[in-house]
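REQUEST FORM: STRUCTURE PREDICTION
Request ID: SP-0412
Submitted by: Lab K.M.
Chain count: 1
Length (residues): 194
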Amino acid sequence: ASSSSVYGNAEALPTSETILPQPVSPYGVTKLAAEHLCLLYYHNFGVPVTALRYFTVYGPRQRPDMAFHKFLKAILTDEAISIYGDGKQTRDFTFVKDIIAANLAAGTTPAAVGEVFNVGGGSRVVLADVLDTIEEIVGHPIKKNYIEKAKGDARHTAADITKAKTLLSYQPQVSLSQGLAQEWEWIQTLYARV
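STATUS: Completed
RESULT:
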C-alpha cells in the first residue's frame, strides 16, 4: 500500500496519478521509494505489482495513533481533541471497506498489474466540517484544542479516482457521516471493555 503522502502539497486538486509526486514528509518519501522499488521488480523481473495510493483511511479497528481514533476516544473521555493548525485543511477521507474493495479489485484485475491507482473516498472535506459532523454523530459539542501545524503535513489532499473507476470499477460506497458513525460505535464498544 502506498499513500497520498507521496504527492505532498500537490499542484492540482483533485490529484491524478500523472502529477509528479513531491512528498513533504519522511513518510511520503518512504512510500514513494517503496513504489519505485516494487515497480522496478515488476519491470526488471516480472514480479506482478500494483500500487494503491490510499487517501486518509479511517473506520473501525483504526490504529489508536490515527486522527479519528484519537478524536473519538478523547470525546468518549470528555477530553479536548487536538487539532493541528487552523482546522481549514482538507482531506479526502476513505472508509476502510472501500479500501478493501479497491484491494480486491486490484488483486483480481489483470490490467492493474504495473499500474498506480489513487484510492479515495470521492470528496474533499474541510476538517472543521468534519468536526461538525462528529458533533452531530456524538450528539453534543466537542472540546477542541488548536495547536501548531504538524511539520510535513500537506495542507490539502483530494484524489482523482478516475483511473480506479475506469480500470478497477472502483466506486466509494460509504459516506463520511456513515463511516464516522460506524467508527464511533466501534470506539464506544472498544473502550467500554476497558
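NOTES: The chain has one domain: 2-192.
Reviewed by: T.R.
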